[in-house]
Amino acid sequence: MASTDSKTKENISSRFKSDQPPMYKVLLHNDDYTTMEFVVEILITVFGKSLEKATQIMLNIHNKGQGMCGIYPRQIAETKVETVHHLASRKGFPLKSTLEKE
Q1: Using CA atoms, how far apart are residues 21 and 14, in angstroms rounded to an integer?
Q2: What is the pTM (predicted TM-score) of this model?
Q3: 71: exposed, middle or buried (C-beta count within 10 Å: 0-12, 13-18, 19+)?
Q4: Cα 93 to Cα 81: distance, rounded to the nearest angstrom
Q5: Which residue blocks in 1-102 are alpha helix, DSSP H?
Q6: Does domain 22-101 fall into CATH 3.30.1390.10?
């Protein structure tokens, strides 16, 4: 009887997952020109991170070459990437943002 219950839970779980839209990670990439302060500002204003979390993510980007800013449905992720590129371009920074299917 327990195996039937676990199979039912698996079926429900897999059906729930398939009903959800695919999610995408938004990444920021390190470069030699964008200031750390600007990256923190982007993380706070575009991604809604606290100063502490934004600083942690920025240091991760700086030390590892890239860092994840959040996970969103595709349209939201694409908008976040475009917003980052627009704001960076206005300030003259080459900050790169990409999305990656989770």
Answers
A1: 13
A2: 0.81
A3: middle
A4: 14
A5: 2-19, 36-45, 51-64, 74-91
A6: yes
Residue 23 has phi, psi (to 5 degrees) of -110, 155
Sign of CA dihedral 70, 75, 80, 84: positive
Do 27 and 97 touch, CB atoms closer than 8 A? yes
66 forms beta bridges with 29
Q: Could you identify the residue written with the tokens 């923190």?
A: 40
pLDDT in tens, 52-91: 999 999 999 999 999 999 999 999 999 999 999 999 999 9
7 C-beta neighbours (distance < 10 Å), count: 10
User: Domain coordinates of the chain in residue numbers?
Assistant: 22-101
Contact 88, 37 (CB under 8 A): no
CA atoms within 13 A on the CB side of 70: 19
